[in-house]
Each structure stands twice: as C-alpha cells, then as structure tokens.
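Chain and backbone:
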Amino acid sequence: MRLVQAAVIFAAALAIVFAFWREQSGKREAPSAKQDNPAHSEATLPGSHEDHSADGSGGTLLQQMDSAQSRESGDLSGPVPTNEQLEKQFAIISQSQRQVNELKARATSAAAARNVDLVNQIVAEGKPIVSLLNLRLAAFERDLDAARRTRPQDATVQWLTGELLLAVGGEPEEILPYFSRATAAGLKRAELYGSLAKIEFDLNHFQAAYDDALKALDGDNKSRTNWETYVRASFALERFSEVIQRLDETFPGSGPDWVEAIRRDGRRSLESWTRETALRKAEDKAGNLPLVRFVIEHRKFVNPTDGQQLASVKNTGRGEVVFELFEDDAPATVANFISLAESGFYNGTSFFWAEAGHMVVGGDPNTKNDDPADDGSGSPGYVIPDEFDSPRARAHFRGTISTVQNGPRRAGSQFLISLTPSPEFDGRSTVFGRVIRGQEVIDQITEGRTNRAVGQFGKIIPGDQLVSVEIIRKRPHPYRATQLRP
C-alpha cells in the first residue's frame, strides 16, 4: 500500500507543480547538443520508469506491491470483492484521474502565461483531489490483491490489474501481458482497448496501437481519451485524412474545443504530408540521392542498475537501417554528415536517449568514453549552417533524421530520428534524410537514457550502439563540412 501511495502522491502532485516550469503547453522539448540543453535543468517526472521500488529493491512493480501488501496486512481473509465491485471502484478512480489531468492541463496553461498565482491556486486545489485519489488507489490495490489470490485467471481481474499498474507508472512490458490475457479471454471493454493501445504505442507497436484504438473508439466514440489515443496511433501511421474524415462524421459541424484542436492539427499535418509525399515521389523517380547504412547493436543491462553504477551489458541483436539523405534540401547538413561518416566519426557511438513513441538520439562522440555523465554534450568541435529555416526545409515525419540543436547555430554531429510525426521540431531542427529500409530496427532501440541529465523520461540504459555508418551511394563531388565557430 505504501508503494502505491508514494507513487500517486509523488506523481500527481509533483506533476502539477512541474507544469509551472514548462515553457510551452503540451509540447515536447527538442534535444540540444549543448550544455544549456533545457532538458538538463528539468527534474525528471515521477512515474517515469526510473525506479518503481520504494526501497530500490528488485522485482516487478506488481511483485513489490504484493510484497508490501503482505507485509502490512498479513492475513488477507475476508470478503473478496466481486468483479462488479472492482469495476465500480475503477470507474470512480478514472473520474478522479480525469480531474487530476484537467488540473495539470490548467496548470500548464497558467505556466505558459507565467501566472504564478494561478499555478499556486491550482496546486492547492489539486492537493485534496490527489489525496483522495491516493486513498482510492490504495483500497483498489488491496481489493485487487485479494481478487488475484482467489481468481488469478479471471479476465476482469487481469484487466484491472493492468489498469492499476498503468495508473502508478508500471513498465509497458510489465503491463502488456495483463491486458493481452484479458482480451484473449474474450473481455471487451472500450477502456481495456484504449489502455492496451496506449501501452502498445509506448512499445512502438504502432499498427497494433491503431487497431486497438479503433476498437476503443467503436465502443465509445465521444470519449476524449479514446480519441486522443486513436489520433496518436493514426498520426504515427500517417493516416491524417482518415482522422479528419472520422472526426467530421462523429462531430459534424463544430465540436468541443479539443475536437477542433485535433481537427486543426490533422489538417495542418495532412497539408504537410501531401507536400512530403510529392517530394518523395520525385526523389524516387530521380533515384540519385545519397544513401547511408547504419549497423545497430541492441544492448541492455544483464543486471538491474540504479543509474549510478554500471552493470554488465549484453547484446540482444543487430539490425541494418538504410537512410536516404536530402542533399537537395539540406546540402550543408548532408555534406557534414557524410564527411563525418566517412572519417569513422560515428562508428562506436551510442544512442544515448530513446523516447518511446517519439524519437531516438545519437551522434555524440562522448558516448564512446566510459563516463555517461557527459553524454548529450559532445560535438565535432564546430557547428554547421542552419537549414531548418530554408524555403526547402522538410518536415518531421516517421523515420526522418534531423539535427539536434534546439535553436540557431547549434547543429554539429548529433542527430535525432523521429519515430512518429514531430511537427514541434519543424523550424527548429534541420531534416536531412529519412529511413527507407529498416524502420523496425529503429523502433527496437532500447528506451531510456544513458544518464539522468538527458531528457525527461525513461529508465537508465547502456545505450544501443551504432556499430558502423557506411555511405553506400553519393553524388560525384566532394563532401566537405562548412565549419562555423560555436
């Protein structure tokens, strides 16, 4: 019980306070290659897969909760709640979570407006709601524990156990089996499909997330949560026109503010995607853009690590990825990348940051040393011209590779690869290529970061290695980097 209470109070309350420090509502930060990376000064959000144990002990989150429950209560005899009672508890908890999410959204908006008084007011308003949610989750955990002991294979118990783990910040890999067993047993709930889709998205299983998000939407097509999950999965598959069509059918005319926001995003993304597909068609016909091959080795810790001490590492497989480089649209960036690649600069570097459903980041020479603390701050010793503000600048879609810079005159050697469309990076990072083969290898890059100073989310990882970078086609002219002073 203590574990759930700590997780919920910490995650919900601090998440509200944290909103004050965010500069933009609902926008993810672009990574920066410099020490003044905004991510370096941000506290990690609680519940971010760092360490779910109250005492740092091992085992899954569910095992830890069961162990804590057993230590506290000992004898669990007594009335065991029915599935109907458990579902009623879950419905009440879901309502409380929606209230907390609304408060977080309000706090974020207030923070964007630099309204300190309003942020403080919202935090004060949220404290009793968070406390009540905490009590309800503790009771839910206790009742679910009793139900699991008496009905371990029950589909509803499996589903709601997954929902509990999702609520307190469990690992996607840990949660997925509970939802999968529930659906395999024939349980059909819009909430179940929606939560399953969220977990699949966080595992970069975008087609599966889309399929289950559709089932959730079919069960409740007016739910904002279901729509947001469906939109994320659909956009990951570039189904922009489908989203707009389905919105228009469900909400003819005007709809709630959140519907209109999705509709605007969908139309902007569709317009950008239409331009992108036309460019790709012309490039495919010409067939003369440079090509580069990555060999990537997936790695993970053999033993658990707390991020402070390195554990032994094992390789979990290799894969190849081929990129096409947009020399016509970002010539200086492509010349720099090819020049560095041909010198062997990238060989042996690691992906030091991987955020599920968003991006992976690499290209830092500092990842070759034994000190993860400086990962994310390395460069080739110079910067290159910006091309993100060019009239020919390309947009960020699934599989695009772009510079890490988060501002003018900061691009060097680091790059990010988008796992899903990322319009928040447009006009801030130069897109200079895209994956044409091996996207599944990119999707499998181990989520997390090699040090706690990089980014907001993710567990500590050894970092998948970029074994080699090989230029397999280029145009018949020299490729030299235009080196500028930082």
In short: The chain has two domains: 2-274, 289-473. The chain has a mean pLDDT of 85. The longest strand covers residues 313-325.
